[in-house]
């Protein structure tokens, strides 16, 4: 009986140590994630500044604002949404349902919705709940079922014009 109590105490101590280690890792992860968020915000701000100054580029050179899915200029098949800070997206999408937010993102991107960008925006603005690893599959499912979108290029959906007008109450 005493051996069982000793084993239980050992297991409880091990559990407490593991939970403490988990808390330490969680805190470290949250700090690193917050620092990364600040870096992302800085790059977004820089992109916004370049967008404002595009007309003043020397010798008619254009700032490559149309970055493709892997971030290289010149990829034209899937455009990233207009550079906006997380705060600006949060204000733009406030009070909208997820599908309404996806329509708004597509409208700001010329009728094309890049699922990876939509995932990033919805997570950053708090329009998703649950585990972030499941957001992309949820978006693909929702977009497949949505009448407002049709399948486009890989990782992208196109806004169906007739449904875009209905969502805005224009029909």
Query: Any idea of the CATH topology of the largest domain?
Result: Arc Repressor Mutant, subunit A
The number of strands is 3
Q: Radius of gyration, Cα only, in angstroms?
A: 22 Å
Order of neighbouring strands in the sheet with most strands: 1-3-2
**SSE order, as H and E?**
HHHEHHEEH
Provide the low-confidence segments as ranges.
Answer: 55-79
CATH class of the largest domain: Mainly Alpha
Q: Main β-sheet, in a few words?
A: 3 strands, antiparallel
Kindly report the average pLDDT value: 78
Number of domains: 2
What general form does the structure show? elongated
The helicity comes to: 55-70%
Q: What is the CA–CA distance across the termini?
A: 78 Å
- The CATH architecture of the largest domain can be given as Orthogonal Bundle
As a percent range, the share of strand residues is 5-15%
**Number of H/I helices:** 6
Describe the protein in words.
This protein is mostly helical and 171 residues long. The chain has two domains: 2-55; 76-167, Arc Repressor Mutant, subunit A (Orthogonal Bundle). Helix content is 58%, strand content 6%. It contains six helices and three strands; from the N terminus they run H-H-H-E-H-H-E-E-H. The protein has helices at 2-52, 86-93, 98-108, 115-125, 135-145, 161-167, and strands spanning 112-114, 149-151, 156-159. Strands 1-3-2 form a three-stranded antiparallel β-sheet. The longest helix has 51 residues, at 2-52. It starts with a helix and ends with a helix. Residues 55-79 have low confidence and may be disordered.
